[in-house]
């Protein structure tokens, strides 16, 4: 499963509370084009569901599995759950994010958001993803200065570590779903599950590092070095970091639930039951 972050999920702003906070969340969702983001995430989820069917279910999922995956990744439902989780994750008083709505609604912010979404959609094609990884490898081997700029952006926004943590939690949730459906019995304790998940940590870290850097290098190719620096400086602000953490928490909550539902559905197939 791919990292669930989107680099543009950052904000800063003025003091707001209560209903005003919810209103600004809605405005932020629009400024960041999140309906389009979740359409892409849903497409990624459908592809991931096919991988599970091929590699774990031996192709036994059939139409019932495809239907379950489609339901689990329904973009409108996921976006609604994300918006609720984000509203809850944000402080209910203190900093708001009126400036971020303006930043991402026009100029560099709008351009960066559009590039990120377009690149992520393009990466649905395995050939494009392979090419992006090859480009990253070549740029790293040649000490291309653009790599340092992308690396700075990644580190400022904690994009590798946060996604490794979310990936591990999502994998644990998948096992919980298998247990919910009876596909995992008492012979595998929770400690065993934790050990199994932790054994995947290094592989997840390596894959996340490559994917994040390849993705952003591809997405930001049309931007100048100065524009990437300006974008990074915007996300470096303390209040922007607060919003970034809230976005990460909201994504983590939504996709932990997605992973548990996938595990439960996969367990049903493994047990030969009807979805």
Q: What's the helix and strand layout?
A:
Elements: H1 18-31, H2 34-55, H3 62-72, H4 75-89, H5 98-105, H6 107-122, H7 126-141, H8 145-156, H9 159-180, H10 190-198, H11 201-219, H12 225-236, H13 238-270
What does this structure look like?
With 275 residues, the chain is an all-alpha fold. Helix content is 76%, strand content 0%. It has 13 helices and no strands. The protein has helices at residues 18-31, 34-55, 62-72, 75-89, 98-105, 107-122, 126-141, 145-156, 159-180, 190-198, 201-219, 225-236, 238-270. Helix 7 (126-141) packs across helix 11 (201-219). The model is unreliable at 4-17 (pLDDT under 50).
Give descriptors for this structure.
13 helices; mainly alpha; globular; 76% helix; 275 residues
How would you concisely characterize the structure shown here?
This protein is mostly helical.
Whole-number average pLDDT? 88
First and last CA, distance: 22 Å
Series of secondary-structure elements, N-terminal to C-terminal: HHHHHHHHHHHHH
Radius of gyration: 19 Å
Q: What's the β-strand tally? A: 0
Q: Low-confidence parts, pLDDT < 50 over ≥5 residues?
A: 4-17
Question: Which structural class is indicated by helix and strand composition?
Answer: mainly alpha
Number of helices: 13
Strand content: under 5%
Helix fraction? over 70%
Spatial shape:
globular
Summarize the biggest pleated sheet.
Answer: none
